[in-house]
Design goal:
A seven-stranded mixed sheet has the order 3-2-1-4-13-14-15, covered by helices on one side. It starts with a strand and ends with a helix. About 35% of the residues lie in helices and about 25% in strands. Helix 4 runs parallel beside helix 5. It has about 400 residues and is an alpha/beta fold. The mean pLDDT is about 95. The protein binds zinc ion. Zinc ion binds next to loops.
């Protein structure tokens, strides 16, 4: 299969004007200028082909929770979140995961790194053809935590696209000994880890307290309240960070020092978190928010470029979650995970810089096509809208705390 457009932005090299991407057996075999011949396959006008977006932190099981508890400080917000979540049977969480997987594909996201309470994202992603790492969450309050996680991992429907991980939830819900146990368990199985760290002022310990368990395989989600020592430790131990600026802003948690993290050489990927805190899974909006907040925070227009923001949602996100051999750029030999962004009628035409145009002009509604591993998983206009309305209704009816 060949897809052609006004621009291809491979991310491992400069943008190519009037170009095409050749796909075979699920892999990219060539990225080259189009020659105007008949073998150019499907041609998209006013469009740019990009690597599929990589969302470095999601909770697809909370897709239908948009707007709940808006304006509450972090501690009462999470209490409200838990109260509503507790109304959900596993089948409700599966409905939310299915709606979330569809929303991600429809917005150009081809991979999610998902912290998952009940494991339903593995099934939903598998059905939808969305690439996913499903980190199963663990909480110290759970009886028989180790056995419960082992059993859930054994039962998880993994595949070539959907793989497992482990997520000690956060320092305020997981003891130090359970952190060590869960991360040890993950490492014995060769699985990656993600955990929420230094998100809000509710956490009192800095990263030195986790020095013994953190490593290149443990994604630190949020890292809002990191100080200089924390940043140095993340760089020293090569601990990746998932940066979720909209969630952090909306919950009043603060603005992570992204430019300092990048300057220190920390691997950072952009994530949306869940609609519960961040409204939706729109990684385009997340890129723009990251740019605006860093420029406002530092008083520097060059604090974060559109190009680096796009890296944070592609190459850098892939590196942060340990998948850069497979995804993140349109490089021959990598998986054919890509999107077509149609900027017809926008202020970004005629073309100046395709990266700037994509980052500032991109939105879910402008995604014309999304491909994962060579399979078209979304085409605009052909999608039936999936919404977990019954699951949401149950959460709205939940008794106030
Ligand atoms: Zn989260």
């Amino acid at each position: 299969m060949i897809l052609a457009a006004d621009w291809v932005v491979p991310m491992d090299g400069p943008p190519i004007a009037d170009a095409c991407v050749e796909v075979e057996d699920g892999l990219i075999v060539a990225v080259r200028p189009a020659n105007g011949g008949e073998d150019e396959g499907e041609r998209f006008r006013n469009a740019v082909i990009l690597p599929g977006l990589v969302n470095a932190h999601t909770h697809l099981e909370y897709t239908a929770m948009a707007g709940f508890g808006d304006g509450l400080p972090f501690t009462p917000w999470i209490a409200d979140h838990i109260r509503r979540k507790d109304t959900q049977a596993v089948v409700d969480l599966l409905d939310q995961s299915r709606a979330g997987a569809a929303a991600c594909l429809a917005s150009g996201v081809t991979t999610v790194a998902d912290c998952c309470y009940a494991g339903t994202v593995a099934q939903a992603a598998g059905e939808a053809g969305l690439r996913a790492i499903v980190y199963l969450e663990g909480f110290s309050v759970w009886e028989g935590l180790e056995g419960r996680i082992e059993a859930a991992l054994d039962a998880l429907p993994v595949s070539e696209l959907v793989t497992a991980g482990v997520s000690p939830h956060a320092p305020f819900t997981v003891t130090h000994s359970d952190y060590a146990m869960l991360i040890g368990l993950a490492r014995r199985r060769g699985l990656p880890v993600a955990t929420h760290l230094l998100e809000s002022s509710r956490e009192t310990e800095h990263l030195d307290a986790f020095r013994d368990v953190l490593g290149p395989d443990t994604v630190a989600v949020h890292a809002v309240l990191v100080n200089e020592e924390d940043i140095a430790l993340l760089a020293d131990l090569d601990v990746p960070v998932a940066h979720c600026p909209r969630s952090n802003a909306l919950l009043g948690c603060g603005i992570a020092p992204l430019t300092e993290l990048l300057d220190a050489g920390v691997r950072v990927g952009l994530g949306t978190d869940s609609p519960s805190s961040a409204i939706d899974f729109d990684l385009w909006s997340e890129m723009r928010t990251a740019i605006m907040l860093q420029r406002a925070r530092t008083g520097r227009a060059d604090a974060l470029s559109a190009h680096t923001a796009l890296e944070l949602a592609t190459t850098r996100a892939a590196a942060a979650i340990g998948l850069s051999d497979t995804i993140g750029s349109l490089s021959p030999g990598k998986a054919a995970d890509l999107l077509v962004l149609d900027l017809t009628g926008s202020s970004f035409l005629p073309w100046d810089d395709p990266v700037t145009a994509a980052v500032y002009g991109g939105s879910p509604g402008r995604v014309a096509l999304t491909m994962v591993a060579g399979e078209i998983r979304y085409r605009r206009g052909e999608r039936e809208i999936l919404a977990a309305t019954a699951a949401r209704a149950k959460m709205i009816e939940a008794e106030p705390g």
